[in-house]
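Ticket #463: bound-state structure for iron/sulfur cluster.
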Amino acid sequence: MKTVNKLKISGAMVYPLIEGGKGINGTDGKSSGSWAKEGGVGTISMVSPTEISLEGTIIPEIFHEKIREKRHREMVEYAVKGGISQAKIAHDIAGNNGRIHINMLWEMADSEEVITRVLDGAKGLIHGVTCGAGLPYNLGAIASEHQVYYYPIISSARAMSILWKRSFRKYPEFLGGVVYEDPWLAGGHNGLSNAENPLQPERPYERLVELRKILKELGLADLPIIIAGGVWSLSDWQDYIDNPELGNVAFQFGTRPMITKESPISDAWKMLMMKAQKGDVILQKFSPTGFFSSAIKNSFLSNLMRRKKAEIPYSEQKTDELSLLLPISPLKAVYIRPEDKKQVEEQRNLGYSMIKETPDETLVFLTPDEWLEMQKQRAECVGCLSQCQFSSWSRANGSTGKLPDPRTYCIHNTLMNIGHGGDIDKNLAFAGHNVYRFATDPLYRHNHIPSVHELFKAILDGK
Ligand SMILES: Cc1cc2nc3c(=O)[nH]c(=O)nc-3n(C[C@H](O)[C@H](O)[C@H](O)COP(=O)(O)O)c2cc1C
Ligand code: SF4
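RESOLUTION: The complex was predicted; output attached.
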């Protein structure tokens, strides 16, 4: 069994084994510090990180402002303070071992401000920044100014080429590596492009060879490629280690470290993953970011799938096809296809009596309770994303100008809930497509929850 040798990452020789950053509260100072202590790279999530007071108590994210713009500012302040406090915890645990990175979802509103202020406030404690979900053009400038390394997360060689040509070539010194995240296998948001078929996964090997080829053309022949998505055991990746076609590689683990003693998620979420079976993780497009994402099929996801399945087209004007008048509120009626009348009745009989328009000229069906909850969550929006399909908030313009989309959900609300002990069935449970391996992996026999130390050793041993 080939194992991995130490590699220079973010300025130090460390094991090329990386804890993938996970928001909200999927990785924190404790988990990342423990990972770095083993000589790897730990990653603190900067998506609404929890602030821990000097006395060690959690400071909950509670919003007081009435106006969304001001709640948004409250959220940024919480994130900055939380990020700095988690970086201190990570540093204390890691000592001088390994490296500490932070991770940011680029499509968060004001992600640049949060990264900048956390790097300022935690000087010397953070060695690298990874950014996914979107093309982080300004990441190179921010990281270089703070003399920390940066790592874009991409899912195709083309994305790296665009980033380099438009921006990163001006900041080559601190480009620490590139994370290739398999868009068909990874947990969380997935970078599938319009050209790629969600139902036709492509092998990572050829895509990684293509990425290395492009990196060579860009003069980045030795840049580490961090392989993420579906990485469980090094024994599965023997052809990728010490392979001259791929060059320097490291491995990022997202789902597997979620079941460790130091992982901040609830025991209930850990047990949900422990029992997951093959096929339980669904790749779908319900996220209000507009990206694909992968999560466990629970009631939360099943409900969104049901809603989507029952969707029907409508028009405000009568057409040959859409000719049947349907009242959808006391003030409004629209035209639907006569053959969809049966569907409307069926939905009403099942309790889905609220009929709501989507931005794509379709109608979906909700229960009155679901509709009330949706309105509540929109009213409580804190503007977490730069653009949100669920609330139609836009950081730049106030509104996207589109109808709020009832086929999506408030990601801040649900990830905050599940990340802090909330119901694992009624909230979004992101997970990678290999989650089913917990059930048969001997490390977790009899529901054993290993420490990061145990997991790290098992990974190095190819288990
Ligand atoms: C619960 C969960 C939350 C995640 N959140 C983020 C995130 O906020 N930002 C990010 O860049 N990646 C996020 N990821 C992706 C991981 O960092 C990692 O790249 C991915 O999980 C690797 O695939 P794997 O799950 O097959 O190991 C998340 C993954 C999971 C499972
Ligand atoms: S409604 Fe959208 S922008 Fe507002 S908090 Fe929820 S996910 Fe974020």
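RESOLUTION NOTES: The pocket of flavin mononucleotide (ligand 1) is lined by residues 20-23, 26, 45, 47, 103, 105, 132, 153, 181, 185-188, 228-231, 252-255, 430-432, 434 (CB under 6 Å).
TICKET STATUS: resolved
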